[in-house]
Amino acid sequence: MSTEAIIEKKKVRSSKLQLPKKYKVIVCNDDVTPMDFVIAMLISIFKHGHDQAYDLTMAIHNQGSAVAGIYNYEIAEQKAIDGVNLARSHGFPLLIKVEEE
Does residue 58 sit within a domain? Predict the structure, then answer.
């Protein structure tokens, strides 16, 4: 068998790499969780500045929910878990969801 025959048999396969999907972390409004707690949670877990956390908290309050951040799946899920655990440890029923962007 010649080398030409070997080269012809091999096919070049190209695969396209895709960027990982992003996920939104959505904080939902409720009638129990104080706004000051939500602001503190957004600062400590999502690393927002005070003014941005305040604006986001007002959006959550007025619109019913708002996106606290957009991350890769593992990071989004962990931030949601951390936020809910913090709320539960203080006795608040805060709901945080993760949705595909």
Answer: yes
pLDDT tens digits for range 67-98 = 999 999 999 999 999 999 999 999 999 999 99
Q: Which of 7, 1, 27 is nearest to 80 (CA)?
A: 27
Q: Do the domain assignments include residue 80?
A: yes
Measured at the alpha carbon of residue 96, what is the angle toward residues 92 and 100, in degrees to the nearest 5? 175
In CATH, what number is assigned to the domain containing residue 95? Answer: 3.30.1390.10
Pairing of strands 65-72, 95-100: unpaired
Residue type, 39: I
pTM: 0.82
